[in-house]
Amino acid sequence: MTERLSAGDPAPEFSLPTDNGDTLTLKDLRGRKVILYVYPAAMTPGCTTQACDFRDNLGSIQAAGYEVVGISPDSPDKLAKFRERDSITFPLVSDADKSVLTAYGAYGEKMNYGKTVMGVIRSTFVIDENGAIEQAMYNVKATGHVAKLRRDLGID
């Protein structure tokens, strides 16, 4: 079983390609609070719902001092198509070899239709300005998660 992160743990560093051809590192975001959300596959129904939910709430999330970053094993090209198709307005990063997902405990055994399989575990991590995990949420739901996250973070 993949080891999961807890509040107070250092957030694993990463340097990953983005949907627009740049590279994003966690260090680039130091000094800001970050919501890093993990989703299995761009342009699937649940992942689209979740991404659009973050997009639609981005203004108030950013006004509360948080940056949003989505991470999946999809290629940068597929992420660019996802961004364009659904007007995603925050960075999407590609972890093709799943090493960062594994470091965050967001890749491993999970239940899928009653079977144990290896895969991406839909998760959200709130990272503080110093790079420490404030919250680590695993097996989150695609629908309604952003509203719950907003409540948990006191964003109105």
What would your notes on this structure say?
The chain is of the alpha/beta class and 156 residues long. It has helices at residues 45-63, 76-86, 99-103, 145-153; strands spanning 15-17, 23-25, 33-38, 66-72, 92-94, 107-112, 115-120, 123-127, 133-138. A five-stranded mixed sheet has the order 5-4-3-8-9. The chain has a two-stranded antiparallel ribbon with strand order 1-2. Strands 6-7 form a two-stranded antiparallel ribbon. Strand 1 (15-17) and strand 2 form a beta hairpin. It is globular. It starts with 14 loop residues before the first strand and ends with a helix.
**Residue share in helix:** 25-40%
Shape: globular
Number of strand segments = 9
Mean pLDDT: 94
Q: Reading side by side through the largest sheet, how are the strands ordered?
A: 5-4-3-8-9
* Pattern of helices and strands: EEEHEHEHEEEEH
Rg (C-alpha, Å): 14 Å
